Each structure stands twice: as structure tokens, then as C-alpha cells.
Amino acid sequence: MSTRYEDIFSTIPDHPESRPLELGDKALFDALFAELQPRISEFTFANLYLFRRAHDYRLSRIGGAVVVQGKRYTGERFFFPPFGADTGQAAETFLHEGVTMAAADQHFADGFGARPDIEVVEDRDSFDYLYLRSALADLSGNRYHKKKNRVNYFVNRHEHTVEPYGTQHREGCLALLDEWRRVREKMESPSLAEEAMAAAEALELADVLGLQGIVVLVGGAVKGFVLGEKLNDDTSVCHFEKADQFLEGLYQLIDREFCRLLFTECTYVNREQDLGEPNLREAKLSYHPVELVKKFIIRKAG
């Protein structure tokens, strides 16, 4: 690892002490994730940083492992699978203390699954939806017929332009985000405000965080945007997509354009989880994922 990695690693206190996740930690996590090649959407630095306030993310270390601790919206503590070296030792320490591991992948599930003192549970609401990028970029064939019709409906009725996201689009995207939140503010969702805050910061810090995006303009005004990044060498991940809900077919268009224009070297695109919301689950399944990337909750039995 680089000297920069070691310098940042040395600022993380030994467990049980911890410190907040900071923007300066990016080089550390970029190195960790480049080595790990994660398949789970939570494991990018941008995603961790943008939701640091929502989940009160804090860092500690055990041996050569970095551990990210957080809180659910209910206040329950959790930790992510440790990153780096000595990950088994770090996981054992937190589990022994009664802290739940969240977003564990199959590797950790297999490692702990046979133990009578540990409970391993599939977290279906958090499964990631993985798609062939080329399929979503082309929308060809009968299975995507309805999606393509919706795109055509929008295209035939609205003069529009599609542009790479840049700072010149920021204010328009923020205005669209405010409207998106206003329309949904009566929904009883504990994560609505946090998602809007994270998306706004993503728009502000896109260059710093390494995010890329697409913007759809109608009449010169931003009516849709999508932001994402590379999750691993073969997969992109779509973090935020927002559109004017009254423009039929626009969501389908921005989904297609993200896959058609960005990260074209990737075979797959991860479009994150459905959070157990029936409408969102139906929408994600309708795009025919090639895999649901499983996540597990791991905790002390009893």
C-alpha cells in the first residue's frame, strides 16, 4: 500500500475508540476497495461518505483491519464487514460485543454459517439488482418492449438534450431534487430526507468523489439526472436517479442513457436495493436482473 494509505490508516484509533469518517479518508478506501473488488453497492467511498451523517459512520481498527460502524434509522448499531487484513479477527471482536454485521457478502455468510453461536440471515430487502449493462443500454427484444415504448413516448413528445453532468447543471439538478422531495414529503419514509441530503451533496462534490452522471434537459431546464461510479473493474453502480415524475418515459430514458453513455467498459450495472418497497421491487424486477446480489445480517445467536 502507498504511504498515503499508511498515513490515513494511522489516524484511525484502535478499537474501542473511533473517529468520524472524513473526506480525507478517500485515498484509504479507494485502495481498500480496489483490492477487494466489491460486488455490494454500499462499498464505495462516495456511498459511505454521502450517508455518513444519516448513519453516523465511524472508523476504528483492529490489527490491519478497518471497521466502519454505523447506526440504523432505528438507532441500532451495526458494522460492515471489515476491510483490509485481519478481517476475521475484527469481525469476531464486534460480534462478541453483540454488534450486528450488516451487508455481509456470501464469503462472510459461509464463514459464519455453520457456527451454532452465530445467526446468519438473508436480508432480502437489501439485495442488490445486477443487470447486463448492454441490455439496459439497448432495450432490445420482447422483454424490454414496454420500456422501449415508454422511452419512445417521451422522445416523440419532448424536444430534449442529453448531456454529461457538469457544474453548469448543478443548480438545475438541485431544483429538481427539491421538487422531488416536496412531492414525496408526505410519505412516511425515515430515509427520504437523508437521501435528498446525500443526493444534493453528491451533486456538489461529484468531481471530488469521482462520480459521473447524465442530465436530461427539456426546454433548457433540468428534468432528470442520474449519478454513479465504478463499483469494481467490471461493474458500474447507479447511486441516484431523479426525474420529473409527470414526464412519462423520462425515468426509462435516463436509465437507458446512463448505461448507454457511461462506464461502457463495464459488463454489468448494479442498481442497488429495493428497501422492501413493493413498487420499487416491481420496477427493478421488470428490468430482468441477471442476479440478485445477496446480503446477509450476521449476529450472535439468541
- Overall CATH architecture of the largest domain: 3-Layer(aba) Sandwich
Largest sheet entry: 8 strands, mixed
What share of residues are in beta strands?
Answer: 25-35%
Categorize the overall geometry: globular
Structural class: alpha+beta
CA-based gyration radius? 20 Å
- Per CATH, the class of the largest domain reads Alpha Beta
What is the CATH homology-level superfamily of the largest domain? Gcn5-related N-acetyltransferase (GNAT)
- The H/E string reads HEHHHEEEEHEHEEHHEHHHEEEHEHEE
Q: Which percent bin holds the helix content?
A: 25-40%
Low-confidence stretches: none
Number of strands: 15
Helix tally equals: 13
* N-to-C span: 40 Å
Question: How many domains make up the coordinates?
Answer: 2
- CATH fold node name of the largest domain: Aminopeptidase
Mean pLDDT: 95
Keywords:
302 residues; Aminopeptidase; 2 domains; eight-stranded mixed beta sheet; seven-stranded mixed beta sheet; 13 helices
Structural summary, described in words:
This protein has 302 residues and is an alpha+beta fold. The protein has 2 domains: 3-126, Aminopeptidase; 128-272, Gcn5-related N-acetyltransferase (GNAT) (Aminopeptidase), CATH 3.40.630.30. It is built from 13 helices and 15 strands. The protein has helices at residues 3-9, 26-36, 45-50, 52-55, 87-96, 106-112, 133-138, 145-157, 170-184, 192-204, 206-209, 250-261, 278-285, and strands at 19-20, 58-62, 65-71, 77-79, 83-84, 100-104, 118-122, 128-132, 160-164, 212-218, 221-232, 235-243, 268-270, 291-293, 296-300. Strands 1, 2, 3, 4, 5, 6, 7 and 15 form an 8-stranded mixed sheet that branches. The longest helix has 15 residues, at 170-184. The radius of gyration is 20 Å and the shape is globular. The mean pLDDT is 95.
